[in-house]
């Protein structure tokens, strides 16, 4: 197809829509004009574009922060393009140095296998599994061998590698950088060569690695991919990026009641960023909702709608409705309809030991802290005495707003 014609012809409504979908909520689309040309060519030829997202199975579960890029993949998938969900089983053996200030210990093959088993199942809650190409980068990385690895390494210079912020900062600070860490961006870039990617998605912290894909595709004589970076989602605290280590996350495998309540706990300000990055509502619908809130409607209405949408996506509409009712019951001091039954022995039993044995506190010291904070109730009464001993009987025990158990003590 004539390149000048592609560049200068008026864009069709379909291409304009695809471009708007691509840009929604994104941090950068590099280069936008190249992506526009790819969209025009795809429409003219009927050949879908190949859109790649790689995730290393560094943990067994995905949280909703990971779904920011998955949502973008789904939006592009719904436009008819081919999405490739790449599991980095080989690159996980190296360990991604992005954003690290020290060498990251690589995972063992056994850990990678366990984690990878759940990744695609969880990602399928966002992507359409019938239209998703799932790949593992060990397919082409393992056969590369030592000779191929050396040839690949010759395609990039140490000087350019050291332009990367984390490497540059660690080098200046006298912190160690292992040679194998240089291999990570090379191998991620080689994935794009192997998959003949047209577009690669990632968080803003992945920009260097994504640009490596463009460079290596040109080195191997391919048309370079465009890259689309998405913002890192702030967690429940509204400050730090969502992370399990910071305990400010919502796991997509969490129960519906917890998921709903956690979404409601975010600030009114953060809610709008979550709408842009996590909701499937159109930007026009979100703008209309925001205008209603600014005109006086209760912001909680918008937050409840977001909580129900996210909960329904990972559970069901019925589960989201039930979670909303459960939250209402709890806010009124009520006990949820369904709470776990726990049978314990050893009456009379100290309240700290009971909380630990019932799985309501991870340790005796944490149980004491919860009691000191007024976060423990027995049959709706706040417990203030850490020395309290409970006689034989059945009690409804509550910790915080969301943890309940019906404890039968013998």
Neighbour order of strands in the largest sheet: 1-6-5-2-3-4
Q: Calculate Rg over CA atoms.
A: 25 Å
CATH class of the largest domain: Alpha Beta
Distance between the termini: 80 Å
User: Low-confidence parts, pLDDT < 50 over ≥5 residues?
Assistant: 1-6
**How many extended strands?**
13
Helical amount: 40-55%
β-strand amount: 5-15%
Query: What is the H-and-E element order?
Result: HHEHEHEHEHHHHEHEHHHHHEEHHEEEEE
Which word captures the global form? globular
Q: What count of domains describes the coordinates?
A: 3
Secondary structure category: alpha/beta
Q: CATH superfamily name of the largest domain?
A: HUPs
Number of helices: 17
CATH topology name of the largest domain, in short, is Rossmann fold
Main beta sheet: 6 strands, mixed
Could you report the average pLDDT, rounded to the nearest whole number? 87
CATH architecture of the largest domain: 3-Layer(aba) Sandwich
Q: Secondary structure elements and their pairing?
A:
Elements: H1 3-8, H2 13-23, E1 28-30, H3 32-45, E2 50-55, H4 67-78, E3 82-87, H5 109-123, E4 132-136, H6 138-153, H7 158-161, H8 165-172, H9 179-195, E5 199-203, H10 207-219, E6 226-230, H11 256-264, H12 268-278, H13 283-294, H14 299-314, H15 317-331, E7 341-344, E8 349-350, H16 351-357, H17 364-372, E9 376-378, E10 381-382, E11 389-390, E12 393-399, E13 403-409
Parallel strand pairs: 2-3, 2-5, 3-4, 5-6, 7-13
Antiparallel strand pairs: 1-6, 8-11, 9-10, 9-12, 12-13
Helix pairs in contact: 2-3, 6-9, 9-10, 11-14, 11-15, 12-14, 14-15, 16-17
């Amino acid at each position: 197809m004539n390149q000048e014609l592609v560049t200068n012809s008026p864009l069709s409504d379909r291409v304009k829509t695809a471009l708007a979908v691509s840009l929604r909520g994104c941090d950068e689309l590099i280069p936008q004009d190249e992506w526009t040309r790819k969209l025009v060519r795809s429409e003219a030829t009927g050949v879908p574009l190949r859109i790649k997202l790689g995730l290393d199975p560094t943990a067994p579960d995905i949280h909703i922060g990971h779904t920011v890029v998955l949502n973008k993949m789904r939006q592009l998938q719904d436009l008819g393009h081919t999405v490739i969900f790449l599991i980095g089983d080989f690159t996980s053996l190296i360990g991604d140095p992005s954003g690290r200030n020290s060498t990251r210990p690589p995972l063992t093959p056994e850990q990678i296998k366990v984690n990878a088993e759940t990744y695609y199942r969880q990602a399928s809650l966002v992507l359409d599994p019938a239209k998703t190409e799932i790949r593992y980068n060990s397919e082409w990385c393992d056969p590369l061998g030592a000779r191929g690895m050396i040839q690949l390494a010759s395609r990039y210079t140490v000087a350019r590698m050291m332009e990367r912020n984390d490497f540059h900062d660690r080098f200046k600070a006298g912190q160690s950088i292992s040679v194998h860490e240089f291999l990570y961006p090379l191998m991620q870039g080689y994935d794009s060569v192997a998959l003949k990617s047209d577009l690669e998605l990632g968080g803003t912290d992945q920009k260097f690695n994504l640009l490596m894909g463009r460079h290596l595709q040109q080195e191997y004589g391919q048309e370079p991919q465009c890259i689309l970076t998405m913002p890192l989602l702030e967690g429940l605290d509204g400050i730090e990026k969502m992370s399990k280590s910071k305990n400010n996350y919502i796991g997509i495998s969490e129960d519906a009641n917890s998921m709903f309540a956690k979404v409601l706990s975010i600030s009114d300000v953060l809610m709008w960023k979550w709408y842009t990055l996590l909701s499937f509502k159109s930007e026009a619908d979100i703008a209309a909702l925001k205008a209603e809130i600014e005109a006086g409607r209760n912001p909680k209405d918008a937050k409840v709608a977001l909580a129900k949408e996210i909960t329904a996506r990972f559970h069901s509409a019925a589960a989201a409705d039930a979670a909303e009712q459960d939250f209402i019951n709890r806010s009124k001091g009520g006990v949820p309809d369904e709470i776990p039954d726990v049978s314990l022995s050893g009456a009379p039993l100290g309240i700290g030991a009971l909380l630990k044995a019932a799985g309501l506190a991870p340790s005796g010291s944490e149980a004491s802290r919860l009691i000191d904070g007024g976060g423990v109730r027995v049959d709706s009464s706040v417990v203030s005495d850490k020395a309290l001993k409970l006689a034989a009987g059945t009690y409804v025990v509550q910790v915080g707003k969301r943890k309940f158990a019906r404890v039968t003590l013998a």
